[in-house]
Batch of 2 targets.
Target 1
Amino acid sequence: MARTVLITGCSQDGIGESLAISFQRANCEVIATARDACKMKRLAESGIRTLEIDISSDDSVNAAVQKLAEENISIDILVNNAGIINNGPLVETSLDTAQKVINTNVIGSFRLTKALVPSMIKSKEGLVINVSSVVGEVPLPFGGFYAISKSALNTLSTVLRTELEPFNIKVMVLEPGAVKSNIANNHLPYTASEASPYHPIKDLIANRLQLSQIHSTAPGREAFADDVVRYALKRSPPKLLITGGKAWLFKILTKLPSSLVQWLFSYRFGLKKLKNIVSTQRKTN
Ligand SMILES: NC(=O)c1ccc[n+]([C@@H]2O[C@H](COP(=O)([O-])OP(=O)(O)OC[C@H]3O[C@@H](n4cnc5c(N)ncnc54)[C@H](OP(=O)(O)O)[C@@H]3O)[C@@H](O)[C@H]2O)c1
């Protein structure tokens, strides 16, 4: 029997949209969701069922789950894909931004999982795929709360996997490398003000946001999504799947000593340059 897959964050030109198309191609019944149905026009036109879900809202999640129950639809695979990114140094991150990132990437994914797992338990099987990030394991500077949220999502997944194992519900963490999408356009904004101690490297900080988009040429989003679906539909899906542009680099970085990684990132992201500027200023003052 065809498996029913519900995916969050399926706006046009993002990972969710490509996953919806790939799961459909693999003969699954797909329910593509996003907080704004207009952004799923293309999926709807290609015959994929769409449904509005804002994962940050109890009302929205409850309404969607009730609708599915009324139609006797049970979800076999839940893909918690929706997410947002922020930019900027940690100490300059507003509490509002920090809360938004955690509320979406961690609590939002948890909200929908919590709402759908009871029906998976009834069905005696299920798969939850949490879309994390390589930065959940190797945190880059200037997007600290995004990395914190993905790291938390990884921990959440580990606990969930153990607790749901008795019910034959599996949990897979997907850590995409660089994949072309709208992620950099949808970020929570940050600009170093002239008074900011980070002002001298403000352009490097702004560029950091584009990192996943500059290096996202291979594989394309479609090939990436096909790869994910191939693994997700295995009898025993992997606990962790790292794939996408530059995934190999992050696999290497996870093996290096943390002091070496810090040293590399200081050069790569302008912190060494900032240190030199600060030390020159100290000498001249
Ligand atoms: N692209 C990469 O290189 C990359 C790398 C590592 C991990 N990821 C992860 O992959 C996932 C998909 O990201 P993407 O690259 O496809 O970015 P994207 O194009 O910005 O897509 C993100 C999706 O999440 C949705 N979303 C945000 N807040 C939501 C909420 N409260 N409720 C429901 N949907 C919400 C967005 O909706 P709107 O369109 O309405 O904003 C959009 O549909 C994210 O979890 C991201 O962290 C991406």
Note: The mean pLDDT is 95.
Target 2
Amino acid sequence: MPDSISPTGTPNPKMTARNVSVYYGDKKAIDNVSIDVDRDNVTAFIGPSGCGKSTFLRTLNRMNDTIPSARVEGDIKLDGEDIYSSAMDVVQLRARVGMVFQKPNPFPKSIYDNVAYGPKIHGLAEGKVELDTIVERSLKRAGLWEEVKDRLTDSGTALSGGQQQRLCIARAIAVDPEVILMDEPCSALDPIATAKIEELIHELRGRYAIVIVTHNMQQAARVSQRTAFFHLGNLVEYGQTTDIFTNPRETRTKDYITGRYG
Ligand SMILES: Nc1ncnc2c1ncn2[C@@H]1O[C@H](COP(=O)(O)OP(=O)(O)OP(=O)(O)O)[C@@H](O)[C@H]1O
Ligand SMILES: [Mg+2]
């Protein structure tokens, strides 16, 4: 990335990554990426398939730890705290930095239990009343409450795809995260369900730092205030979403957003 584009464009970042490289065995999938994740804005990661978006996203809550061949180098901090330090409790970290995946993956449990599970294992509720409150609040924030309030004991897997994705967002919200990572959260959804998720991202902005990976340029332009363009494991360009889409500095960025390659 050219020196003129600072990864530290944000005065008060929620997360900072410096000189991060990721390997799968001998293969380098992410090459020396430095970037700040803004606290109050939505950051979109874009770039052609295989460029390393998911790999880099997973470094932000150590999901790569679950892939035996993966190795992460560099420095990643959450509010100044090194998330790769041996003192970091990874279970705690993944509650603080929640994740929503491409394919909705509710637990084979009731709608209620999907949301209550995290608060229970993290000891966030004193009793049933408090747990009920957390479940209701999380489902409301995820824009799902009205649709499910009368069927909380139904299985989460019985919901529609879009509802399942909002349930997964409610599940992430229930443990009171600081950051939410979303890896192509709408790619399995129809346009109406997609619009609901995008609306939800707008509503959640400011309460949580949000990072979203998307292949949909219109979506990146609609939901994010910052955009990072990845190509072949490199962070090519990072800046205000409006600048990236209207006035990209790099030819590679311009070619990608105008659909020359993908
Ligand atoms: N578990 C893994 N083991 C080995 N290599 C992997 C693994 N996951 C990803 N890779 C490789 O790392 C590179 C980056 O993959 P990644 O999934 O991060 O890309 P991506 O930008 O998210 O792509 P897509 O848009 O298709 O989801 C690719 O070359 C991919 O083959
Ligand atoms: Mg991916």
Note: Residues 24 and 70 are 4 Å apart (CA to CA).
